[in-house]
Amino acid sequence: MLASTFSNSNIYEAGCDEAGRGCYAGPVFAAAVILPAHFYHPLLNDSKQVTENNREILRTVIEQQAIAWSVAMVDNDEIDNINILQATYKAMHLAIDGLSVKPELLLIDGNRFKPYLGIAHHCIVKGDGKYAAIAAASILAKTHRDAFMLQLHQQFPYYNWQKNKGYGTAEHRKAIIQFGLCKYHRKSFDI
């Protein structure tokens, strides 16, 4: 079972995670989520461990029951300009900016983070499988990004982003060879 909080104190903790960092196309998304202290849902886990249908169920639950949540994105052009790591930090900062309640502690999935002014943070490797707030952020980042990629698929169906969501699958790479790159591809990536 995921831990509901990182600290035992009565402070607002925001979990932060990203989606789409390793993709060939589309933006990187990040989410920040503050959950009630004793939040529990049996399906909640790292988004990669949850089925697509269950992620959609969880998205609704999280958005309805969270104390605060926010999702932000940085597009492929900016990723090319500032690099994917800096774009990931920027997306997380934008998500934190969007919270309606200011957190007192940030729980970051991973091992690196660019400090957010005035708020302490902890980086937790595989945190999306350990803490509920990070898992919730992973669900929101993933579902919001997937929905965005489905919209882009309508413009460029031959890349099949409705299925691969911009990741470098064999099918996606074959389509790039056949049709070339489009305006949503990350030109700085070694495709």
UniProtKB/TrEMBL annotation:
Belongs to the RNase HII family. A divalent metal cation binds at D17, E18, D109. GO terms for molecular function: manganese ion binding; RNA binding; RNA-DNA hybrid ribonuclease activity. One of its GO terms (biological process) is mismatch repair. The keyword Signal does not apply. It is found in: Cytoplasm. Its cofactor is Mg(2+); Mn(2+). This is Ribonuclease HII.
